Amino acid sequence: MPDLSHQLRSRLETTQSIDLELGSDALHPAYQGLSILNLPASLCHWLGASGPPHPALAIPELDALVTGVEQVIVVLIDAVSYDRFRGWIAGMSAELNPENDHCLLAPLTSVVPSTTSSALTTIWTGRSPAEHGILGYEIFLKEFGLVANMITHTPMAFEGPGGSLYAAGFQPETALPVPTLGKYLASAGVEAHAFLHYSIGRSGLSRMHYAGVEKHLFGGLADLWIGVRHLALKSLEGPRLIWVYHGGVDGVSHRYGPNSERARAEFVTFIQALQQNFISDLSLEARHKTLLLILSDHGQIPTVRDPKYELSNHPDLMGSLHLLPTGENRLIYLYPRPGMVKKIIEYFKNAWPQSFNLIPSEKALKVGLFGPGPPAKETRDRLGDFIAVSQGDAYLWWAPKENHLLGRHGGLSPQEMLVPLMAVRLG
Fold first, then answer.
1. Rounded to whole angstroms, how far apart are CA atoms 117 and 297?
2. Average pLDDT over residues 303-321
3. Model pTM greater than 0.90?
4. In the structure, what pLDDT confidence band is assigned to residue 16 with cuts at 50, 70 and 90?
5. Cα(356)–Cα(317) distance, integer angstroms
6. If you average pLDDT over every residue of the chain, what do you get?
7. b/e map of 156-170 (b: 16 or more CB within 10 Å)?
8. Cis omega before residue 113 (within 30°)?
9. How far apart are CA 95 and CA 280, in angstroms?
């Protein structure tokens, strides 16, 4: 396969949003064909299902690679940027070599915000964050009168077990205003499976995404890849999609930094298990009918623990807001008190010069920062009045606990926004 990296990356890095001051290093999502938003339409097309309304991936070489495929295995490794993926996977496996004719590696963009709850919901609905309304790690749910953590489905500051939001009437299965991918696949007779670690297999986010999909829970990596291989070897009665999610790199990168030895080792261990327990023992017949896709939902950027970014040290700013910021540490939604907008803008300029760009939320939504399509009715309330877009490695920390992260995401830097898509014909 030709190396598409330079060609596509140049296109991605020159794509800019209209009339928004996002910062010199900001990378706008390529929603019209080179974003993870476009993957679901491609998957549905390859598997013979009608799909969501947005364009499929605009990579003709990828469509050529799919000819004759009967099952697609999609492996999502959370929080691996394009550059890290390319460097880490080099020389690891003969099959996973982008220089080979049966393999293709291309950069895509994540969505805004570049975070798991938004990105995975986009992949499992084929709709933009504006349309599905899951707009960050922590968002204001006006209809329930609280700010909720969209991974754990708890009130924002709650430290107990996940799922307490359900006591307020929140139902994951009906929380999305758009259909999920499982419904498209089921209507076309496509067999759909998802492999998830047992710790998240019954989580609210999983309940939200995987309606109509058979879930397989695993413990360790050998358990995962032997299970995937056994399923991939089963006779096909129709097209089959197998989804694999791995969150280990994301967790390690948050704690130790995305460039850390531990983050790379977590990635390498995962790929070695894929090679040893799946690819190496897959039959020739299964190889011929299978396409393997490896991708990520977003990257991460290294950050430092710095008290100047902790809002507990900025009481004047806190007093100017109706509630704590929401969204992401690197893409922050602000709810100013009446008459406080000018004061907030000046505070950001003085406290963190050249570290944030403040833009009106309504304008960002109107010009498509959060994607194409009609916004969900809840979207405007969930974005606040202003968005603080981080520059460089800046962030804000407002949680009532230790600021412990050395890696973050949610912002618009290339490290957060550029993600890999590797497609492999195994035989």
1. 10
2. 97
3. yes
4. low
5. 14
6. 95
7. beeeeebbbbeeeeb
8. yes
9. 10
Instruction: Indicate the residue type of 387.
Output: I
For 408, phi then psi, to 5°, come to -140, 165
DSSP per-residue string spanning 40-98: HHHHHHHTT----SSPPP--HHHHHHTTT--EEEEEEETT--HHHHHHHHTTS-STT-T
Q: What is the model's pLDDT at position 395?
A: 98
Q: Which residues pair with 418 in a beta bridge?
A: 109
Tell me how far apart the alpha carbons of residues 89 and 97 are, in angstroms, rounded to a whole number. Answer: 8
Q: Half-sphere exposure of 125 toward its Cβ, with a 13 Å CA cutoff?
A: 26
Q: Which of 277, 165, 272 is nearest to 223 (CA)?
A: 277
Homologous superfamily, domain 23-300+414-425: Alkaline Phosphatase, subunit A (3.40.720.10)
Helix H or strand E segment including 216: strand 214-218
What is the arithmetic mean of pLDDT over 9-31? 83
In contact, 294 and 250? CB cutoff 8 Å = no
Q: What does the block give as tokens for 365?
A: 């939504």
* Percent of all residues in the chain with a pLDDT value above 90, rounded to a whole number: 87
Q: Considering the chain, tell me which residue range(s) the CATH 3.30.1360.180 domain(s) occupy.
A: 307-408
Q: What is the pLDDT of residues 207-235, one digit of tens each?
A: 999 999 999 999 999 999 999 999 999 99
Question: Residues 390-401: pLDDT tens digits?
Answer: 999 999 999 999
Rounded-to-integer distance, Cα 390 and Cα 329, Å = 8
Q: What is the pLDDT of residues 339-376, one digit of tens each?
A: 999 999 999 999 999 999 999 999 999 999 999 999 99
CA distance 213 to 290: 19
Domain 307-408 is found in CATH 3.30.1360.180: yes
State both tokens at 256: 């130790």
CB 192 within 8 A of CB 185: yes
